[in-house]
Amino acid sequence: MRIHGRCHCGNISFALDWIPEPAQIPARACTCTFCTRHGAVWTSCPGGSLRIRIGEPSATAAYRFGTRTADFHLCTRCGVAPVVTSRVDGRLCAVVNVRTFEHVSPSLVTTSPSSVDGEIEDARLARRARNWIGDVAFVDA
Q1: I need a labelling partner for 47 at 20 to 30 A (CA). Which of 15, 22, 38, 126 fits?
Q2: CA nearest neighbour of 83 among 46, 124, 137
Q3: Which of 11-15, 42-46, 120-124 comes out lowest in average pLDDT?
Q4: Torsion angle of alpha carbons 92, 34, 37, 15, nearest 10°?
């Protein structure tokens, strides 16, 4: 299944090839203050591939907090963060915000709370290597 998503203005967009075809898309509502304040809900497909397009790079920012091991890609025009990336052992991994999906039935998404409070950096990076999308590339707009 190919899932398209984007920030509100379309400056940051993505195409996620979810393999195999999902019966449900599991999503995590992170309880950290950043995700709570932005209303972000994240998902990933470890066997899938993600292509990210940035229309106007000067209208984006990468925000890091906490362990500073992940980049929340924010559009500075509309304020939406559709993608988070992290480099783990030299490989770029990512999660996407289900609230930025286009033309995906909300009934396909199952959301549960998620907390990473107290998780040490090594454990966090290992979890990302296992669970995040592992085939990630930025492509020309």
Answers
A1: 38
A2: 137
A3: 120-124
A4: 0
